[in-house]
Amino acid sequence: MQQAIQSSIDDTLTGAREVARRLGVRLSAAIRGRDDVVELVLIALFADGHVLLEDYPGSGKTTLARALGNALEEGDGTSEVAAFRRIQFTPDLLPSDITGTNIFDVETSHFAFRRGPVFAHIVLADEINRTSPKVQAAMLEAMAEKQVTVDNHSYLLDDLFFVIATQNPLDLAGTYPLPTPQLDRFLFKIEMKHIDRASELEVLDQYPRASLEVASDHPGVSRAEILAARRHTRGAVHVAPVVKEALVDLARLLRSDSRVLQGASTRALVLMLPALQARAVIHGRDFVSPEDIEALAPHVFKHRLECAPGVEDVDALIAEATAVQIEKLARASLRRG
Amino acid sequence: MTAAVQRSSLGVAGAIAELGRATIHGLGWSVLVATMAPSGSVLAAFLGGLGGCLIGAKVARTRVRTSAVVVGAVLLIALVSGLRASLTHGSMLAAMLGPVGALRFAGTLTALLVAAIGSAAMRVGSRRRAIFAVLELLLVAVAFAQLFVPHRHGAINRPFYLADWIIALGWDPTWLFLFMGGTATVFGLVLLLREQRFGRAVINLGVIALLLAVIVVATPMIGMPPPPDGGGGLGLRSDKSEGKDGESEKQDRGGPAASELEFRNKYNTGGSRVPVAVVLFHDDYSPPSGVYYFRQGAFSQYNGRKLVVSGRQDIDNDLIPYFPTRRIEIENAPPTNDNRGPLETTIALMADHTQPFALEAPLEVEPLDNPSPNRFRRVYRATSAVLTADYISMLDGYVGSPAWSKEQWAHYTEVPPDTRYAELGAEISAALPDELENNPIAKAFAVTGWLGREGIYSLKNDHSGANDPTASFLFGDRTGYCVHFSHAATYLMRSLGVPARVATGYAVSEAARQGGSSLLLSGAASHAWPEIYIDGYGWVVLDVYPERALDPPEQPMDADLQRLLGELARGASPLPLSATDLPKLKELARRMTLTAGTWLLSLLACLVMFLYSVKTWRRLAPRWGSSRALPRLVYRAELDRIGEVALRRDPGESRESFANRIRDQLPSFAPLTTAHVAAAYGVHEANPLQLRDEAARVRSDIRDRFPVWKRFLGLVTPWSWLRSK
C-alpha cells in the first residue's frame, strides 16, 4: 500500500505518517484484501471527513469500523467518550435514539441529558438508508456540525467524531435513499468490491481467531495522536497553486459537462483539500501531487454528481475530466516556471 | 454511452470532422462508381458512403464485435448482389419500370447499399483499430487513382472527360493531374493536421511533404507514360520493342536507319492498335486509290534473296533522307502539275521512327515545335505532291524517266535469275486485251490485278526459310502478307520491263479519316507496297488488294482519340516563332518545378535538422541547467530516453502512475519521478548529486533491459522527443 519513497518529509509529518502506518497495519490485519478501502478510511479520518460505504452484507464493514474503534480504545483507555458505537438504522428509529434524550432524574428533580450513541469517536451508522428522513437529518446534522441539539440545548460532540455509514446498493425496498445534498456531507463514498481469492483464503485461514483479535496484536493509537496528526497534516502539507487551480478546473469542467445536471459543490473541494493532504502524508510526501487528485477524485465526486438521464457510467465521466486536468498538470510540470 | 454523451465530448469540431470523413467516403464511392455507372448510381453511391460512414461511427460505439461487423458486411454485400441479380433478371420490376428503368433502379440500389455497407464496416473497423484506417485510405486512393489509369492504349489519360478537354485546349494534362494530386495532398494534410496527437500529426506532415516532393520532382522527369509500341515488323520504327520477336531476327542494329524488310512466318501484331503517329491534313484530299500511302522507305536493290535499301546516291532519292532540323526541299520530288497537287500535312510521331515519312510524294519538310513533348516524340510539317489524276489516265504515260541513266534503268528492272518470274509475267500480260498488250503500265496493272485475285492474304505463312521467299510465295501457296505481295508484284513488273520498287510506310483507308482532318496511324497500318515510275507522275503506288484473306479484318481506330490527338498536334507551331516565347515559358515552368522540389527537400532537411537539434538540446540541457530547473531537465532528458524505447505515458495518466506502470521494465524511474514531482509541487530544493545519480541509474537500466537495435532506432528517430510528454 505504501510506496517506499525517499522523502523530504519533516518531523511533525513523520509523526503523522507513523500514526497512519500503525492504524493501517492494524486495520489491514483486521480486514484482509481491502488495503484500498483502509487507505481511504484513514485519509477520511485524517481529513476530518466521513465515509459512506456501499457494500453487500458480510463484506467486513462492521469489522473495519470496529477495528478502528478498538485501535483507538486501546491507545486511549481513559476517555469518557466511548471509542466506538454502532447504530443499526431501522424505520422505527427516532432521532432521540441516536442523539440521546433528557431524562427526569428523580433524585435531583431535574432533567438530565442522557447521551445517545453518537457521542463516540467512531460511529458506525449501519444501513443509514433504512431509517426515516427525520433520523437521517439528525444524524447528518451531527456529522456536519459536530453537535446535537436536544430540547433547544446543543451538545458538542468530540473533536474526533468520525462516522462510517453503510448502505446496501441492492435491496432498496422500504428504504429512504439519501438525497444528493445529504450525500454531500460524506467525504467519500466507497464502493467495496469482493476481495480477491488469496485474501478470502487468508480470512478462512485465520478462522479460529476472530480478526479483531488478530488485529490487536499490533499497537493502537490515541485520540490525541490522531488529532495532532490532523493538525499537522493541515498545516505542513504544501498545496501548490497549480494543484488548486487544477482542482477548481476539474470541478468546473464537471459542472459544464452536458451529461451532468448538477456538479460538485464548493464544499466538496473544501473537503477534498485536507483529504489530498492526508493522502500525501500517508504516501510520505509533504506536498500534494497530481497523483492524489487522480486517486481521490472518483471517491469525492461520484456521489455528488447528479447525472442526466441515460448516463450510466459516472466513473468514466469523472475519469475523463480528471484525465484532462492530470494531463494539463503533467505537461505543465515539464515547462519552465 | 449514448449519442448525446458522445456528441458533447466530441464537440462541434468533432461533428464537423465526422461529417467531413463521411463526405470523403461518399466522394470515394461515387468516383469509384462514376466510370462505370449512370449519374443516378453515382449519387446513390455518394449518399451510401456518407450514410454508411455515419452509421459505422455509431455502430463502433456499440459492443458489436469487429469480426462480426466484417463478416456481416461480406454477407450483406453478397446478399445485395443476389438482390441485384434477382431484380435485373426478374420480370416484375421490368414490367413496372421498363427494362432500362429496372436496370437503372437495380444499379442505383446496389451502389447505395454496397457503398453504405462497405463504408459502415470500414468506419467501425477504423474506429476500433488503426489498421482498418488503411482500408479507408485505400478506398479513396484507389477511387481517385483509377481515374488516372491510362486508357486508349496509353495515348490519353483518364479521366478522359477531363484530359480530353485539356488536350483539346492544347494543354498538357500532366500539369492538371499534378495540380490535382497536389490539391489532394494538401487536403489530406489539413485532415491529418486535425489529428489530436501532435506528435503523430508531425510525422504525418513529414511523410506527406516527402510524398509531395517526390511527386513534384518525379512528374516532369518521367512525364506521362509513353504509349507502348507494337505492330512493327517493317523496320519503320526504332523503338525498342520493334522487331523484338520473329524467328528470323538475328540482326544487330548498326545504325539508326537499319530498316530492312523481313520475311517472317508469323507477323507479330501484338500492340498493333497502339497509335504511332497522327497526321493532320491542312486541306481536303481524296486519293484516287482510296488509300492514303505514307511513304517512309523504298527497297529497290536486289541482293540475291530480296530487295534491300540501295546505297547509291542516284537511286530512290525522292525520300525524306533524315529528320530535318530546318526546312528542306526534296531534290528529286515529282513536279506539281495536273497530275499531282501540293498538300500540306502535319505529322506528329508518337513512336520513334528510323526515318520521317509523308504522303507520297514529299516536296518539302519542316520541323515544328513539339506542342506536347510528353505525348509526341517529334512533330514536322510535310508538303507532298499528292496524286490527283486517276489511274486510267496513267495508261497514256511512259514508264521510267528519260533522264535516267542506263545504270538507273538496270537497277530498277533487275529481276532474280529465276526464269519463272518472266514466264509468269508473260502469262499475265498475255491476258490483256490486244490494244493494251504492249502498254507496260497496263501490264503492271494486270500484275497487281492478278495477284489480288490469286493471292491469299495472311499474316501466317511458311516462306521465310526458303532461299527466295518470294518464289516460295508466288509459285507456292500464294499465301502471305504485304511484304510477299509487294516483292512478287515488283519482280513480275520488272520482268515485264516496268521500273518498279517496294516502298514501305503506312497505308490507311480514306474512310478511316471519317471526314475529319486528322488521321491516326497505328502499328497495324504498317505496310509495304509496289510502286512503278511513270514519267510526269514520279513513283506511283500500285498496290495489290488481295480479295481473299485468312485473317479477320482490322477494327477501325478510335475516332475520338484520332480527333483529340489531331487537336493536340494542331498546337504545333513552326520552330522560329516558338523560340521566342513558348519554350521560355515551359522552361520557366520546368525550372520552377525543380526549384519547388529543391525547396521542399531543403525544407524537409531543415525540419529534420531542427528536430535533431531540439532532441540534442533536450538531452544535454541537464549539464548546464540551473539547480532550480535541474529536476525538470533531468527528468525530461530521461523521459526522452525511455520514450525512445517506446515507453510512453498515456494521455491523462499522472507521472507517478506512469512510473508505477513501467516499474517492472524500469524500476529506477520511480525515484526520479518522485524527485521531479517533488520539485514541481513541493517546497524543497532537490539535491543535484542525488538527481544525477538517479538519472544515471535509469540510463543503466535502459542499457541493461532493452536491445541495442531498439535503442538505436530510438536514437536516430528525429521526432522521438515530440512524443515524450
Q: Could you please describe the fold and organization of this structure?
A:
The complex is a heterodimer of chains A (337) and B (725). Chain A is α/β, with parallel strands linked by helices and 337 residues long. Chain A contains 13 helices and eleven strands. Chain A folds into two domains: 200 residues, P-loop containing nucleotide triphosphate hydrolases (Rossmann fold), CATH 3.40.50.300; 96 residues, Helicase, Ruva Protein, domain 3, CATH 1.10.8. In chain A, the strands form four sheets. In chain A, strands 2-5-8-1-9 form a five-stranded parallel beta sheet. Chain A has a two-stranded antiparallel ribbon with strand order 3-4. The longest helix of chain A has 20 residues. Chain A starts with 10 loop residues before the first helix and ends in a 5-residue tail after the last helix. Chain B has three domains: 148 residues, no CATH class; 304 residues, no CATH class; 119 residues, no CATH class. In chain B, strands 7-10-11-8-3-15 form a six-stranded antiparallel beta sheet, covered by helices on one side. In chain B, strands 9-4-14-16-17 form a five-stranded antiparallel beta sheet. Chain B has a three-stranded parallel beta sheet with strand order 13-12-18. In chain B, strand 5 and strand 6 form a beta hairpin. The longest helix of chain B is centred in the C-terminal third of the chain and has 43 residues. The interface between A and B is large, with 40 and 31 residues.
